Amino acid sequence: MFQFTRLPPLAMYIHFPWCVRKCPYCDFNSHEIRGELAEKAYIDALIADLEQELPRIWGRSVSSIFMGGGTPSLFSVASIDRLLSALRARLMLVPNVEITLEANPGTVERDRFAELHAVGINRLSIGVQSFQNQQLQLLGRIHDGKDAIRAAEAAHAAGFDNFNLDLMFALPGQTLQIARDDLYTAISLAPRHLSYYQLTIEPNTLFHSRPPELPDEDLAWAMQCEGQVLLAGAGYTQYEVSAYAQKTYECRHNRNYWQFGDYLGIGAGAHDKITDMAQQSITRSWKVKHPDSYLCKAATNQRIAGSRQLKQDDAILEFMLNALRLTNGFTTELFQQHAGLSLSSVTTTLQQAVSNGWLSCENDNIRPTEEGQRFHNDLVALFLPA
């Protein structure tokens, strides 16, 4: 069925499941800290988890590492350093590997930025969300607008040439002017990368059970369109639905996801996708979610909560779900290499998408039109199995 001629790039995701407080919009595997943080035990568990996974990726180079959560920056620099040392000893990392750590703008985290840079973190992703105190309070964030500004300034001062600011729009009570002001502030702080995305209400969140009043679709679309114009004018290229970067500063780790590359996941609830050349297969697996269970099982096969091999229809849908988020789409060669399939397997659906005005197919490149980007979900739905 699959016909892989070479393996896709390999990245690594490391999940840290604890936060100071759970945000009402967050559907990630995150848990409020209750009592003492099990810091040493969790780093031990991550290393044990990695050692169990090594046979699946033996001989492959890792192109990027992303530490997400939760709030990884709650862990001490010494613990992050110990983890990085363990990774370097066990993995083949490409030269200048991108190593990202998610951080909140709070005082404790930003005071550690220089030390984090010194131990090898070379990219930060700072969860600002907004610079307006009213919106931050409604989002349940524990920082204020001044904290957010100080965090970006601290990243610069710590020597981070590359950091991302996470910014949301279509927030409760947000007007077009407030969204515009948030962007002006973010741009003035000169991050290399900006994630600018719409707040969505996800199942299993407090906002889902108690929905706030959000801007309507027309206002949200106006915020997105004006944001695109402002960011382009400031030198940020939109390379994905919600990702904007200065030249050469696209996020390598996220681009690997969007191009259907492989990634190994360690940590509570972490997911991964691994291609096996010998078996001509793609396997997805995921770890037990609760931190307490993970701590007990990380060194055993019981750490794996489940796994499944993708079928051809699964691979097509997942590839398109990701690759069609990219402004420049994908090439025929990329589809063949990363999905392991011939483009003939999707020719009819591609033609329908072109007919709908959602895709452009020129030479070897297939990319979403502006209409296709706006109606991304409808475009991807065309690739659902019949």
How would you characterize the overall build of this protein?
By secondary structure, the protein is an alpha/beta fold. The chain is 39% helix and 24% strand. It has two domains: 10-256, Alpha-Beta Barrel (TIM Barrel), CATH 3.20.20; 316-381, Arc Repressor Mutant, subunit A (Orthogonal Bundle), CATH 1.10.10. The strands form four sheets. The protein has a nine-stranded mixed beta sheet, sandwiched between helices. Strands 12-13-14 form a three-stranded antiparallel beta sheet, with no helix packed on it. Helix 7 runs parallel beside helix 9.
Task: Reconstruct the topology from this structure.
Layout: E1 10-16, E2 18-19, E3 31-32, H1 39-57, E4 61-69, H2 77-90, E5 92-103, H3 107-110, H4 113-119, E6 123-129, H5 133-138, H6 145-157, E7 163-169, H7 176-188, E8 193-198, H8 206-209, H9 217-233, E9 237-240, E10 243-245, H10 252-258, E11 262-266, E12 271-276, E13 281-287, H11 291-297, E14 304-309, H12 312-323, E15 330-331, H13 332-339, H14 347-355, E16 359-362, E17 365-368, H15 370-374, H16 376-381
Parallel strand pairs: 1-4, 1-11, 2-3, 4-5, 5-6, 6-7, 7-8
Antiparallel strand pairs: 8-10, 9-10, 12-13, 13-14, 15-17, 16-17
Helix pairs in contact: 1-2, 7-9
Keywords:
386 residues, alpha/beta, TIM Barrel, Arc Repressor Mutant, subunit A, 2 domains, 9-stranded mixed beta sheet, 16 helices, 17 strands
Number of domains: 2
Largest sheet: 9 strands, mixed
CATH evolutionary superfamily of the largest domain: Aldolase class I
Over all CA atoms, what is the radius of gyration?
21 Å
